[in-house]
Design a protein that fits this description.
Layout: E1 10-11, E2 18-23, H1 34-42, E3 46-51, H2 64-81, E4 87-89, H3 101-114, E5 118-122, H4 136-151, H5 160-163, E6 174-178, E7 185-188, H6 193-201, H7 204-210, H8 215-231, E8 239-246
Parallel strand pairs: 1-7, 2-3, 2-5, 3-4, 5-6
Antiparallel strand pairs: 6-8, 7-8
Organism: Streptomyces griseomycini
GO molecular function: hydrolase activity, acting on carbon-nitrogen (but not peptide) bonds, in linear amides
Pfam family, one: PIG-L
């Protein structure tokens, strides 16, 4: 039995103060979420970033030892554009992240440190919809984040974290998945879209390795088209879509 198509997207909940975004690589958030994040920080909400890797395997013409620090710098600059100053890296290996207890533990520890009500991650499914295959890193981190939201609140899962001063946090109310082919909710991107473009442009080295197109033309075209497409299901306003998984 097929699930019904969701024709209109609902507004994201706004009765929260702290969010934590957990993704695999530098640029993962900038390719879809940053307009929403800009609007949230404008409203006085706290958002922190945790990245599983430094993206060191992301540019074929750069050795990982050079690429990792470069992409870390780009990510920190990118986050600052949308009002995010807390950016952490877990130092898992780019391209070969393994789903399992070690990854769940690291993400659960981050959730306990930051104590968010909303956790954001990227598409954890095998494809982006249809036959466009997702990467193993996105799948592993997205799935582990959904699981770690529960792990963070259980004293007896990863009990060693308590010894590190990280008491359980059972306050995650939602996990929001960006890039889902079955979104349920959205955030108005009108006010944040211009900063989202500038935020993505901070990943200039990555973009220049990815395409011969002018970086600003590329970034503006990609983000504007996605926001307008989402807006067709959100009252005609440009928007960022999420699949929302309530907890509790």
């Amino acid at each position: 039995m097929t699930e019904p198509t969701i024709s209109q997207l609902q507004p994201m909940p706004d009765d929260w103060q702290r969010a934590l975004a957990v993704v695999a690589h530098p640029d993962d958030l900038e390719y879809g979420c940053s307009a929403a994040i800009a609007s949230w920080t404008d409203a006085g909400r706290e958002v922190a970033y945790v990245l599983a890797t430094r993206g060191e395997a992301g540019i074929g013409t750069l050795d990982p030892a050079e690429c990792g620090p470069l992409r870390e710098r780009e990510q920190r600059a990118s986050a600052a554009v949308v009002g995010v100053s807390a950016v952490e890296f877990l130092d898992h290996a780019d391209g070969v992240i393994e789903y399992g207890p070690a990854l769940r533990r690291d993400i659960a520890a981050a959730i306990r440190r930051h104590r968010p009500e909303l956790v954001i991650t990227l598409n954890h499914r095998d494809t982006w919809g249809g036959t466009y295959w997702n990467t193993p890193d996105h799948v592993a981190v997205g799935r582990a984040t959904l699981d770690a939201a529960g792990d963070a609140g259980n004293r007896w899962i990863f009990p060693e974290l308590v010894g590190q001063g990280l008491e359980p946090w059972d306050g995650v109310r939602w996990v929001a998945v960006a890039g889902s082919s079955t979104p349920t909710h959205a955030v108005d991107a009108t006010d944040g879209l211009e900063r989202a473009v500038r935020s993505l442009l901070e990943h200039r080295a990555y973009i220049e390795a990815l395409t011969d197109e002018d970086p600003e033309t590329y970034a503006r075209g990609f983000l504007t088209q996605n926001a307008e497409d989402t807006g067709k299901r959100f009252g005609g306003r440009p928007a960022v879509a999420f699949e929302l998984f309530p907890r509790g």
